[in-house]
Amino acid sequence: MADSPLDWWRRQGLRFRLTVAAAAVLALALALSAWVLLTVLDGALMDTVDETTMQQAQAVRVAADANTLTSPITTHDGTIVQVIDARGRITHVTYGTDRLVPLLDARARADVLAHGRPTMLDGRPYAIPGFLRVVVLSADHGQTVVAARPIGEIQTSLATAARVLLVGTPALVVLLAVASWLMIGRTLRPISALRKSAADITDTARSRRLPVPQSHDEVHSLATTLNGMLSRLEEAEQRQRALVSDAAHELRSPLASIRLQLEVALGHPEGQQWPETAEGVLEDTMRLSRLAEDLLALARLDERGGVPARREPVDLDEVVRQTVDRYGEARLAVCDPVVVRGDALDLSRVLTNLMDNAVRHTSSKVEVTLTADGVLTVTDDGPGIPEQDRERVFNRFTRLDSGRSRDEGGAGLGLAIVRETVHAHGGTVALQDAAPGLRVVVSLPVSR
Ligand SMILES: Nc1ncnc2c1ncn2[C@@H]1O[C@H](COP(=O)(O)OP(=O)(O)OP(=O)(O)O)[C@@H](O)[C@H]1O
Ligand SMILES: [Mg+2]
Fold first, then answer.
1. For residue 3, what pLDDT is reported?
2. Where is each HAMP domain found (predicted)?
3. 326: containing domain
């Protein structure tokens, strides 16, 4: 298929395109200004010539009207003057001027007089080199004053200026093109360095960073931004790896426990209490399935990237009442009607996780309140969480009481699910000291 010039242009490198574009614009601008300069200069010089010629002509006319013309007429600036009488004869001239042939014949004189504007005349037929500017004035008694001034010098100067511009302009354009080519090359060098090192980055490379140029320009900020992105990606990947290894770790102990119980039971079938074994195995299986469910919940939260699964109006007070009812030791102190937008199942999981924690750690009672401003609190009177750990416990697989019996505690995903779900619903979670015990304060935006 034929390639259009536009396609060809688009295929060229940035360096070439920028250089050509800059040179073209400069060439155009210079050509335009050269043309303007020559035109203005030409006009200004001609105006000056016309003015002085006119002054001379007027002076001669005044003398002609007064009949005080001398022969030859004297002018001080080389203006040629012919005074022609009513019958077309030349009566007075400046020194060295033709006395027989008028510079302009009768018709031409009448033309110039009618237009009132000076005219241009080739001087060669009158043995004058170059062109002349001619002014015609009429005087008394049918006399006509013809004044002319050679403009050869002006034309030579203009021609010289044009020649200088003709050579200088392309030279300037070439100079600019070379300078742009070099400068753009220098500017683009760090970008190609960035590109090369970006190409070298593989997912196994240890340090994945791009070289940051020393100059504090756009390329510098591009490299810094890209490095920021790389480090965020690396962190995310590390978190993912840690999650996988933590999950595997958590799976190992219930699986080992199941295996041990079954091996013991099968190794000594005589006198084996199968219901007991089954109970033990069932307990471990429940732990495994809870872990799987929690991991799935977190994976879904990650997938959705901070938005709830649904945005339906949920009667939070209803959810709270139903959930708290399932816990014998819990007391629902306040339960104002509250409607929030979100996912009822996810919100009930939040409360379940908090209740599980509170019931597990409390020494006597658990109190739950829900106020009309969308603030839900779960308070227990257990050991509480020390100030310095109150942020950390929200991380995945973080357990403070890992020394305690594992059978009771979970994998350490509960609070992570709580915080991420609440954030997805546009709310906040805070842990407070209930002295004694812990108060978890969840506040959710109320839908009106
Ligand atoms: N009400 C509480 N009182 C004292 N400590 C608590 C309380 N709630 C949570 N913690 C501490 O915070 C840790 C993290 O809680 P989180 O709910 O995330 O995990 P978990 O309860 O151990 O396990 P999971 O919820 O996955 O079954 C707990 O291991 C516990 O040490
Ligand atoms: Mg928990």
1. 81
2. 185-238
3. 312-443
* 189 pLDDT more than 90: no
Q: Does residue 316 lie within any of the structural domains?
A: yes
User: Residue 326: is its pLDDT beyond 50?
Assistant: yes
pTM over 0.85: no
Ligand 2 centroid–CA 346 distance in Å is 15
Among the listed residues 333, 337, 341, 331, the one whose alpha carbon sits nearest the alpha carbon of residue 318:
337
Closest protein CA for atom 17 of ligand 1? 414
CA 185: distance to chain centroid?
Answer: 22
319 and 299 within one domain: no
190 lines ligand 1 (CB under 6 A): no
Q: What is the pLDDT of residue 406?
A: 45
Q: Which residues contact 143 (CB under 8 A, 6 or more apart)?
A: 64, 83, 84, 85, 86, 91
CATH code for the domain in which residue 418 is found: 3.30.565.10
| Measured distance CA(1)–CA(368) in Å, rounded | 75
Residues 18 and 107 occupy one common structural domain: yes
In whole numbers, what is the pLDDT of the chain averaged over residues? 91
| pLDDT band with cut points at 50, 70 and 90 for residue 243 | confident
> At CA 99, angle to CA 97 and CA 100, rounded to 5?
130
pLDDT digits (tens, 9 = 90+) for 22-77: 999 999 999 999 999 999 999 999 999 999 999 999 999 999 999 888 888 888 78
Q: Based on the structure, what is the number of domains in the chain?
A: 3
128 & 269 share domain: no
Q: What percent of the chain has pLDDT over 70?
A: 97
- Using CA atoms, how far apart are residues 183 and 165, in angstroms rounded to an integer? 26
- Asked if 188 and 227 sit in the same domain, the reply is no
Q: The CATH number of the domain where 270 resides is what?
A: 1.10.287.130
Ligand 1 within 6 A of 298 CB?
Answer: no
